[in-house]
Design brief:
The protein has helices spanning 9-14, 21-30, 40-53, 58-69, 91-99, 110-115, 126-133; strands at 4-7, 35-39, 72-75, 104-106, 117-118, 121-124. With 135 residues, it is of the alpha/beta class. It has a single domain (4-133), classed as Rossmann fold. A six-stranded mixed sheet has the order 3-2-1-4-6-5, with helices on both faces.
Length: 135
Amino acid sequence: MQPVVVYDTNILFSATGWKGTPFHCLELARHGSIKGITCIEILDELAEKLSTKLNFSSTQTRKRIEYLSSFLRLVTINNTLKIVDADPDDDKVIECAVVGSATHIVTGDSHLLKLGNYQNIQIVTAADFYAQFSR
């Protein structure tokens, strides 16, 4: 079975402009080795971070979101799942994974990584995911 993956915002951000492990994880989805999914809430958070942290123009931000949308399947979440008490902003990532029937969440977020898994969805670092699926 092909993995179905939600990339947390920090992974999508790190994959922008740097050719490290998050970039290589995202490339697995772009090349169709795995299925990537996302939601508008994750893309909106990414757009804000690109603008504020990397000073992307609105055009650069829009192009990055369009690029990601070209190979990540968009799912709709209701923002009703409440799992991460320490950082409720992380709930959208888990809800996206549940709605999209994901097998994995790839993240660098300590609150999510502490969970380890949620409803049989493995929550892993980019390095662990890439080591498992880059073959």
